[in-house]
Amino acid sequence: MTGLYNRLALREDFPNYSKQEVGVAMIDLDDFKRFNDNYGHAYGDLVLTRLGRYLQKDWMNEHLRCYRYGGDEILIIAYGLEDGDFVKKLQIFQAEYAKLNQQLKEPATLSIGYATGAVADEEELRKMIQLADNYLYQAKRQGKNQVVGAEKK
């Protein structure tokens, strides 16, 4: 539905990210259940599909891949970026997505949690994904529609 990679593709891609500096972000549509409850699941699917298409068209490249992680959660993994570029990209993405969705019945916003740093192996990448997920929930607790995370030095 979203056109993004799935969890199977993520497992297959894990070795490609080992021994690299990566940026990991978990993205979640704020109050996604509201879209399904107020307008039906077809409308919720439309909102999710728009997000997937936007990521596919304007963000994915050879250094940045997007995976549907579950429900309305999207995982982004990037490598080969300069220090600070990943966070700037996430902030720009969040702002542009909010503008893109102004014409919806209810504007859709995103919360994003991220972590960056070197990963030696698949286990460290899994831990970084979990850390990004923890930051995502922190963004939700702090009021949603924001980018929260940490960059390893």
TrEMBL record:
Q: Which residues cross the membrane?
A: none
Q: Which InterPro entries match?
A: Diguanylate_Cyclase (IPR050469), GGDEF_dom (IPR000160), Nucleotide_cyclase (IPR029787), Rev_trsase/Diguanyl_cyclase (IPR043128)
Known Pfam families for this protein? GGDEF (PF00990)
> Which ranges of the sequence are coiled-coil?
none
Entry-linked SUPFAM superfamilies? Nucleotide cyclase (SSF55073)
Q: Which domain of life is it from?
A: Bacteria
Query: Where does the GGDEF domain start and stop, copy by copy?
Result: 20-152
State the PROSITE patterns in the record. GGDEF
* PANTHER family assigned: DIGUANYLATE CYCLASE DGCM-RELATED (PTHR45138:SF9), REGULATORY COMPONENTS OF SENSORY TRANSDUCTION SYSTEM (PTHR45138)
What the entry lists under NCBIfam families is as follows:
GGDEF
The name this protein goes by in its record: GGDEF domain-containing protein
Organism from which the protein derives: Lactobacillus delbrueckii
Q: What is the lineage of its organism?
A: Bacteria, Bacillati, Bacillota, Bacilli, Lactobacillales
